[in-house]
User: What shape does this take?
Amino acid sequence: MVEPTLTVRGVEIFQEYLDRPAQQALLEELREAASQAPLFVPETPRGRRMSVRMTAAGKYGWVSDRRGYRYEPRHPAGGEWPSIPARVLEIWQAVTGLEREPDCCLINHYAEGARMGLHQDRDEADFGWPVLSVSLGDDALFRIGNTERGGRTESVWLKSGDVAVMGGEARLVHHGVDRIRPGSSSLLPNGGRINLTLRVVD
Ligand code: SIN
Ligand code: MN
Assistant: This one.
């Protein structure tokens, strides 16, 4: 069983979980997934374009548009989501120890200037399952708050190869990304950051 190197407000962080060759191999698998399910710019229910681009793999993808936030069995363009890459499932299994596989691997791309406001991941049926995130590319300033709205927050830089788990008491903490540090990683040829989040949906 792997142990976290840092715990912030119950969020367990496994720093440098993936070495550079493992990050590169994972990136290759993600490229293939994204060629089947292209990145798109989601809109918030209020009609604002999000600053991240998204796609997904697995039984469901998470989508947002004027009809709201939800999981969908198909890409907005109509096609099926690709299956979750084997290396992604390996990370889930090794870090969480769970037999149950995730239903969704959300793939977020942050270019310079992209961010994600504080939110909870709460569109899943059972909060007993953890959410696991993998960071690739540029560093991201990840902010962690509380299960309730408001109150103090703490921030931590997530780097390429880091894995974070929101589970147990920390499953419903508010979290977000204030900014990325452009040019801090050479992993992605065009810069930026990719974040994967794995969720059990049903
Ligand atoms: C998310 O909350 O969906 C993404 C978190 C991250 O980009 O690290
Ligand atoms: Mn989230």
Summary: The chain has one domain: 6-199. The CA atoms of residues 103 and 190 lie 29 Å apart. The domain at 6-199 is CATH 2.60.120.590 (Jelly Rolls). The helical segments are 20-36, 86-96.
